[in-house]
Amino acid sequence: MFITERNKSKRHVYFETLSGRAELDRKEAADLARYRSGYSGECEYDAVLDAVGHDNLFVFRDIWMQAGGGEVQFDALIVVDNVLIANEIKNYSGNYSYENGVWRVRGQQISEDPVSQLSRAAGKLVKLRNESGFQFDIEKEIVFINPYFIFGGDGGMGASGGGSRQFVMRNRLKQYFRSLGNHTSGRSAKVLAEEISGRIIADPYPVPETDYGRLRPGANCFKCGSFDVELKRFVSVCRRCSYAETVERLIVRTVVDFAVLFPDGDVTMRKIYNFLDQQIDTQKIQRWMSRYFQVVRNSSKSHYEIRVKDLRKTLVSGGYRSNYEHDRAFIFENHPRRHKLNPHYV
Asked: Which part of the chain has CATH 3.40.1350.10?
């Protein structure tokens, strides 16, 4: 069973949000492409595991945890009786080789070394075992999820590997997952999973500081990103792609975006008003901010606390059900037209 959700990393969300309001430099664009590729591969991993089945497994996805006096990140950490299985997921494509501890792509040496990454992470699990007093074996595999990944090399089984490292290619991923089904998950697995859950922490690394001056203010289109939108009383309509978004959702989205870009700053109604280039009146902004976000009052100036920097989760928790919503992705269970999305509805 999946214990945690698969979410985009904090920096992934940051660069995606930044790209909607600023031109990314070369490094930022490369980082965003890398995060998108990695997340896509991780979602594919989840889909294959879902198809094979994981009822007898405790699967932690995309977690940071405290162990061995430091922090460690896992793409997937699988718990069964007396075994912890760490999976590092890579969405590489093209011709790669691995010989004598060196990775090359098309013959050129690269700096990233997933073998070392996974070994460091597994080392933290050894320290976890010592700290917790639980006895469990540790297994570690690098999963190459992309079917267009072409590999040549010793497969991590060279002199330094001692046969302890394993690479799992896309064409045998289902077989690998089925082999995990041979494990049992009884009380010892449950207790170990609870130990892992108690050590999970938020991503400890900060996002870059944002230069407000490079950002383009104003209301933009949720679908195509254009700033050429017509703001009506209840909806915003994009003149480029004709996508319609409720003003309510647009305001909430803008607040979340602002909080992503400025995580350490106070979020106020006036800041959002200016961030929207004063295109939406303050009463509307105040109304929807008060509904979806917790106000923090102090003697000098009130601000809003943005606890969850995720548009969909924020809307769901706030009971979003606008009658002007026509995007099926935002017509949630509580919406009065939700039943009409049922394919059997007449």
From this structure: 10-201
CA atoms within 13 A on the CB side of 237: 8
Quote the pTM value.
0.91
Q: What is the pLDDT of residues 231-280, one digit of tens each?
A: 999 999 999 999 999 999 999 999 999 999 999 999 999 999 999 999 99
The burial of 196, by beta-carbon neighbours within 10 Å (0-12 exposed, 13-18 middle, 19 or more buried), is given as buried
Bridge-based pairing of strands 137-144 and 166-169 is parallel
110, 114, 116, 122: CA torsion to nearest 10: 170
DSSP, collapsed to helix, strand or coil, labels residue 18 as helix
- The residue among 210, 195, 164 whose CA lies nearest residue 17 is 210
Give the amino acid at 230.
E
In whole angstroms, give the CA distance from residue 141 to residue 130. 22
Strand pairing category for 200-201 and 108-109: unpaired
Domain covering 10-201, topology: Trna Endonuclease; Chain: A, domain 1 (3.40.1350)
Q: Hey, what are 27's tokens? A: 């490094």
The answer to whether 235 and 330 are in contact (CB under 8 A) is no
